[in-house]
Amino acid sequence: MIRKAFKMKVYPSSIEKYTQRHNPIWKELEAVLIAHGVHNYSIFYDGETHILFGYAELESEEKWNSIADTQICKDWWVHMADLMETNADNSPVSTDLKEVFHLG
Questions:
Q1: Which residues, at least 6 apart from 49, have a Cβ–Cβ distance to it below 8 Å?
Q2: Domain for residue 104, yes or no?
Q3: In a domain, 102, yes or no
Q4: Which domain covers residue 25, as residue numbers?
Q5: Recorded E.C. number(s) (predicted)?
Q6: How many CB atoms lie within 10 A of CB 56?
Q7: Is 14 a domain residue?
Q8: What is the pLDDT of residues 22-37, one digit of tens each?
Q9: Active site residue 79
Q10: What is the pTM assigned to this prediction?
Q11: Total number of domains in the chain
């Protein structure tokens, strides 16, 4: 299992809406994540910096990367684009984080 961590940035006034839109996440998107081998996916929020910290356990990077090609993922990006920093295709601006310690 691959542990993946990444960060994104939500607009300061949008965390409440961001949280609401994730609870619950669309069933169709949840199904795509599961079908693509994503497990234990969490997103955390730092209120000082407005940084979102994402953590997921993956079966493979290839499966993870292919989620972006699904229509439901593209629709989700459009749905969330007004709340966070995004790229031209509406995908969130995201930075992978390098693991420097793990106890387990």
A1: 9
A2: no
A3: no
A4: 2-97
A5: 5.1.3.32
A6: 18
A7: yes
A8: 999 999 999 999 999 9
A9: no
A10: 0.94
A11: 1
